[in-house]
Amino acid sequence: MPGSPRSGGAEDPDEALRAVEALRAADPVLREVIDSVDGLGDPRAGRPHDQYGALVRSIVGQQLSTRAAQAIYARLIERFGGRPPTPAEVLDDDPEALRMAAGLSRAKVAYLRSLAERVLDGSLRLDELEQLPDDEVIAELTAVRGIGEWSAHMFLMFQLERPDVLAVGDLGIRRAVMVRYGLDKLPTPAQLEAIAESWRPHRTLACRYLWRSLAATPAV
Q: Looking at the domain 51-159, which fold is it?
């Protein structure tokens, strides 16, 4: 079901409390997860606040551990004075020099250049994404070389703050569900969708609790 456009911003405390209580009532397993977590923290901590910067950070972090992604991103922004580069700066930089300075793969440098080109030529209009439903945002973003469904889901969750996004391809979510729901192996996307059906329309919040629960979950 397509999600509704929702602008970012501070969430109303009463609305947040109602969402938590709805999740606790909908799923007894998730209730235990919620009760075991000591707060969620700021979901945008350490993330760029502008949409272009958020996509740059997402491309850099794809298929990397959190620590490796943070280190490479830190080297990238250091090259540009401690901030994310603009599209023009990415395209003006020498690709090989950029790769070596930040520790990026050649593929990721190509992805960053593809993103910059699409923003500059107007084929990706970042200022219009907030007005689109979730499925159309995903379609717009995944048209960019190097941005897949996972990155689009992260953008919806943390940049646009959409409330009902399920990151079916995220390894952390799948691992948390496997452990908490007593599965023998990681759930498939279809299995995860079925388990998460009762979490609607608060699947983003459920994912955040599951991610947070991993800190207290033994490695498997």
A: Endonuclease III; domain 1 (1.10.340)
